[in-house]
Amino acid sequence: MADTIALYLWAGTIVFIRAGAILMLSPGIGENSVPGRFRLVVALLTAMAAAPALRPVLPAQPGDLPGVLEILFAEIVVGLLIGTCGRILMGAVHVMGQIGALQSGLAFAQFFDPANGVPNATLGVFAGVTALAVVMAGDFHHMFLLAAAQSYARFPAGDMPPFGDGLELVVSAVSTMFRLGMQMSAPLLVFGLVFNAALAILSRLAPQIQVFFIGIGPSIELALFIFMASLGSAMMVFADGLETFFRGFL
């Protein structure tokens, strides 16, 4: 009986280490505003639910302390790798917000970002909060928990992830982040190009007019209107890209 309990405690510890590292960085549950105790409880419940099913693929407990520490360190690295990819993908909404702020002339309008704990462009903060709502409403936090459970097929427990595979995963997340950010901000980019081209033509036709002071007001109003009108479609693009990335990972 004692051996069985020790076996399941070892399996639960391995799963808890990887799940905790993932949830510490994953969007939604891993935000700075979420209490650390809540994240620990979610990771513990995930380990309790997944450990019995994952026990056959988990390594046996080594007989010495260095072997135990080696396995636990490998689990931490894998968990941080997966969680970091999820955190990187959340940067797509901030790319959209920064582009929108630049195109509208609101780049210097800063506001406290609760997700990162630092000031950020106002449009980026609003888009980030909206993206968090999409993550939680769309049950994407369940996908991160599923990634924690099914990641053992790609990264076996107890083994350090190959450097090439880990680097490829991070590079893929970064490229996906910028691609999604550009796609989400496409209407604002088109608006900025057309509006600034029109101002340039007006400046050439009437050099005596202060085009910048005339155009800054309509630029902000139109950019905000386009931002709000396209925000729903942008969040759908973000959700689809997030799901596609993790479905391919799983």
Structure description:
It contains eight helices and two strands. It is mainly alpha-helical. The protein has one domain.
Mean pLDDT: 79
- Which strand order does the major sheet show? 1-2
Distance between the termini: 35 Å
Shape: elongated
Helix content: over 70%
* CA radius of gyration: 23 Å
Low-confidence stretches: none
Helix/strand structural class: mainly alpha
Tally of separate helices: 8
Largest sheet: 2 strands, antiparallel
Q: How do the helices and strands follow one another from N- to C-terminus?
A: HHHEEHHHHH
- Find the count of extended strands (DSSP E, 2+ residues): 2
Q: How many individual domains?
A: 1
Strand content: under 5%
Provide the fold topology.
Blueprint: H1 2-25, H2 36-54, H3 65-104, E1 110-113, E2 118-121, H4 122-137, H5 140-150, H6 163-184, H7 186-205, H8 211-249
Helix pairs in contact: 1-2, 1-3, 1-5, 3-4, 3-6, 3-7, 3-8, 4-8, 5-8, 6-8, 7-8
Overview features:
250 residues; mainly alpha; two-stranded antiparallel ribbon; 8 helices; 2 strands; elongated
Summarize the structure.
The protein is 76% helix and 3% strand. It has helices at residues 2-25, 36-54, 65-104, 122-137, 140-150, 163-184, 186-205, 211-249; strands spanning 110-113, 118-121. The longest helix is centred in the middle third of the chain and has 40 residues, at 65-104.
